[in-house]
Design a protein that fits this description.
The structure holds two protein chains of two kinds.
Chain A (H helix, E strand, L loop, with lengths): L1 H6 L2 E4 L9 E5 L6 H8 L2 H5 L1 E6 H4 L3 H10 L3 E3 L10 H9 L4 E4 L17 H8 L4 E8 L1 H4 L13 E4 L11 H16 L2
Parallel strand pairs in A: 1-7, 2-5, 2-6, 3-4, 3-5
Antiparallel strand pairs in A: 6-7
Helix pairs in contact in A: 6-7
Chain B lengths: L3 H26 L7 H27 L1 H22 L7 H20 L3 H4 L2 H16 L6 H24 L12 H23 L7 E3 L3 E5 H17 L8 H29 L14 H24 L1
Antiparallel strand pairs in B: 1-2
The chains are: A alpha/beta, B mainly alpha.
Chain lengths: ~190, ~325
């Protein structure tokens, strides 16, 4: 609630309803606060079963951040530096969510610096291949790159707009690049709606 | 605690709001009327937001001056958020915006609360207005420099500086008058400006329509402006007993507030047109953003304060 008032977010559900079924919310990534803002935009019931995937190097440093990540929004921290085949983040995600939790992921991998949405990394594809039953909900966050641009410490209190779009699924036998392009398009499309 | 005059004024406004709410409700439930349902619906939503504004304002008055100043400070802060959100800025403006939001805005209201007229009257037009271009120049980003500076300055001037003159009414000193004089004056000001908004809108529904600026606002007509201002001038004159002014001065002040309110609404419409949006935000349903509600207050407040200040000197 606090984050919602602070970020002044207006939330739009376009061709999509808030549900507690297992989902993967995937969004464009422009600031460290993205995960928190999306999470707080969800209704209470949905929030309780939703975990955000966040970078360990940012959210585990500093006591306040660590407390927020662990106790407040129950984040799933991923070590970006030590990605290995036998300890892939996708496996970790699948193990952690079980058959209960939904995820918030940022398939761009890192924060994009401009207003353009970067190419999606393949993690989203592998996640869906292993769990094709998950609903994929595209999310677009507007303005966050102005609120907390790369390299800045203090945020400026502008208003954001978060749009949830119609869910998509991985089609049977769909090639990786096609799927990732389609997923990216679904986020880009939300920007102009 | 409040004196009978103040209570009568606040009670009267609440009664008026109650009456208008009832009338609109009756009209909505009747099927056989010739009033456009869209207009009625827009009026109903406006009334709902007025209720909110009125109760919050009355509550702040009862608690005291500090609460009122803080309330207006919060409104300013939010309005500035809406303004800057809609105005494109570049990454180079980030640090400047930080100072504008977290130093200039709170400081202005702290100074108003401290009644430091000599400083709060120039804090933004002198110090902040010089700080903004200098800070942006320091970042080395010179692209569309003047344009970016002007946008931030305009936001700060309209949303913060102008609006801060509304709670500044509480700091006036009158030769004759009781403790409630300033509270009543502020309430009078807010009611007159909001009323002139509503009456200009209502008069604009008249059959003959001469639109003033078709490219910016098709809803503002000469009929609305003249009719609304005349009605508000009359009402303000009749309410003279709540103000420190004689009847003719109360009427003149109401007229000025109404005309300035019109100018404010028109100016903010022009900005919205340019940005291609209808409303500034989504906080109060039916009212667009906070800025859509207070645009007329922003323009009227400094002028109203100035006139009242002169009068208090006489």
């Amino acid at each position: 609630m606090t984050a919602r008032v602070l970020s002044g977010a207006s939330v739009r559900w376009i061709d999509c309803q808030p549900e507690t079924c297992q989902r993967v919310y995937f969004a464009n990534h422009t600031s460290h606060l993205d995960a928190l803002v999306i999470w707080s935009a969800l209704p209470q019931k949905v929030r309780a079963v939703t975990r955000a995937v966040a970078a360990k190097d940012y959210w585990a440093s500093g006591r306040i951040r660590k407390y927020m990540a662990e106790h407040l929004f129950n984040a799933l921290l991923i070590d970006r530096k030590e990605i290995k085949v036998h300890r892939s983040p996708v496996d970790l995600m699948i193990r952690e969510i079980g058959h209960k939790y939904s995820l918030i992921v940022f398939p761009e991998g890192g924060r994009s610096s401009g207003s353009e949405i970067g190419e999606f990394k393949s993690g989203l594809y592998y996640l869906c291949k292993k769990r094709p039953d998950l609903e994929l909900v595209p999310v677009h966050i507007d303005n966050m790159n102005r609120i907390l641009p790369r390299g800045e410490v203090f945020p400026v209190p502008l208003l954001t707009c978060i749009s949830f779009g119609a869910p998509i699924w991985l089609e049977a036998g769909e090639p990786k690049s096609d799927f990732l392009r389609r997923a990216r398009q679904s986020v880009v499309r939300l920007k102009d709606l | 605690m409040m004196d009978p005059k103040t209570l009568t004024l606040i009670g009267g406004v609440l009664a008026l709001l109650g009456a208008v709410t009832a009338v609109v409700r009756v009209l909505r439930n009747r099927d056989d009327n010739d009033i456009n349902p869209a207009i009625l619906e827009s009026f109903r939503l406006r009334i709902r937001a007025w209720w909110l504004l009125c109760t919050v304002l009355a509550a702040a008055f009862i608690i005291g001056k500090v609460a009122t100043v803080v309330l207006f400070g919060a409104i300013s802060f939010w309005a500035l958020r809406e303004f800057i959100t809609l105005t494109p800025t570049r990454p180079g403006d980030h640090r400047t915006l930080f100072w504008v939001f977290f130093l200039c805005t709170p400081l202005q209201f702290v100074l108003v609360g401290m009644e430091w007229y000599m400083l709060y009257s120039i804090l933004i037009p002198v110090y902040a207005f010089l700080l903004i271009p200098a800070r942006i120049a320091l970042t080395g980003d010179y692209k569309r420099f003047l344009e970016r500076v002007a946008k931030i300055q305009a936001g700060l001037l309209i949303c913060v500086y102008c609006l801060s003159y509304a709670p500044a009414l509480l700091t006036l000193h009158w030769k004759s008058g009781d403790d409630g004089t300033n509270v009543r004056l502020l309430f009078f000001f807010v009611v007159i400006v909001q009323l002139s908004d509503a009456l200009q809108y209502a008069w604009a529904q008249a059959p003959s329509k001469h639109v003033i600026v078709p490219t910016i606002s098709p809803n503002r007509t000469w009929e609305g402006l003249l009719g609304g201002t005349a009605s508000v001038t009359l009402i303000g004159g009749l309410l003279w007993w709540t103000t420190p002014f004689p009847a003719w001065m109360a009427a003149a002040m109401s007229m000025v507030a109404s005309l300035m309110g019109f100018a404010g609404g028109l100016t903010m419409s022009a900005i919205k047109r340019d940005r291609g949006v209808k409303d500034y935000g989504t906080l109060v349903e039916g009212h667009g953003g906070v800025l859509d509600r207070i645009d007329s207050l922003c323009f009227a407040a400094p002028v109203f304060f100035n006139f009242a200040y002169w009068w208090s000197m006489i």
